[in-house]
Amino acid sequence: MNRRVQLGPVDTWYGEDGEGEPLVFLHPGGVDSRALQPNLVALTQQFRVFTPERRGHGRTPGVPGPMTFEDMVTDTIAFVETVVGGPARFVGCSDGAVVALMVALRRPDLVERLACVAGVFHRDGFYGTWSRSAALIDW
């Protein structure tokens, strides 16, 4: 089922399919949730899967100003609080893994379990190219 929700300035598109415990599945950067499609059949057999598209990706338009990981984390937290309604499992791919990890660091009460796929594992590879707010995380 395809839906929309207003999260602050972001008119967020998301998919919701399956039944069971909630799982928030975060897509890689530069693509949208359609990139996750091959995995949804298996996941929706066990979980209620939410696939929000981050600002400036796919069917979620961008908003004025820079796009930072910090903003995407704030949007994701608002999504979980507003749509999911409580703690969830998270799976993030690439940039989605970075967002999922940052959500877990900022709001561990919202993350029941966390799987990061092809995410950054050490800041040395990206230090200085991330948004300033993401670089300030205490590693």
Structural summary, described in words:
The protein has 139 residues and is of the alpha/beta class. It has one domain: 3-Layer(aba) Sandwich (Rossmann fold). Helices cover 29% and strands 28% of the residues. Strands 1-2-4-3-5-6 form a six-stranded mixed sheet, with helices on both faces. Strand 3, helix 1 and strand 4 form a beta-alpha-beta unit. Helix 2 crosses helix 3. The longest helix is centred in the middle third of the chain and has 16 residues. The protein is globular, with a radius of gyration of 14 Å. The C terminus is likely disordered. This is Alpha/beta hydrolase. It comes from Rhodococcus sovatensis. Keywords: Hydrolase. GO terms for molecular function: hydrolase activity.
Question: Which labels suit this protein?
Answer:
Alpha/beta hydrolase; disordered C terminus; hydrolase; 28% strand; single chain; Rossmann fold; 139 residues; alpha/beta; AB_hydrolase_1; six-stranded mixed β-sheet; hydrolase activity
